[in-house]
Amino acid sequence: MKELNNAELDCLRKIAGGYSDVISPCADNVLNRLLSLGLIEQHPKIWLPLEMMRATYHVTRIGRKYLDNESPVR
After folding, report:
1. Percent of the chain with pLDDT over 90
2. Greatest pairwise CA separation for the chain in angstroms
3. Which candidate, 63, 54, 47, places its Cα nearest to that of 15?
4. Is the pLDDT at 38 greater than 90, yes or no?
5. Residues 6+ apart with CB under 8 A from 24
6. In angstroms, rounded to a whole number, what is the distance separating the alpha carbons of residues 6 and 58?
7. pLDDT score at 42
8. Is the confidence at residue 25, as pLDDT, over 90?
9. Who's near 53: CB < 8 A, 6+ residues apart?
């Protein structure tokens, strides 16, 4: 796995610290990258009309291991 850039690492830390209840804890491209790497997972929090969803994010086991080591997970 490639190392995370500063924005991705900052986002992962925010989510690990419980800051995912805000409307958007990080930029969409950062969230999508963390999701694609399996470092976070998305859970629906509030379903809004017209198929809009407010989501909350949680750090996965792999994401927690990454934060604990702050080195790429292999």
Report:
1. 42
2. 41
3. 63
4. yes
5. none
6. 19
7. 85
8. no
9. 44, 45, 46, 47
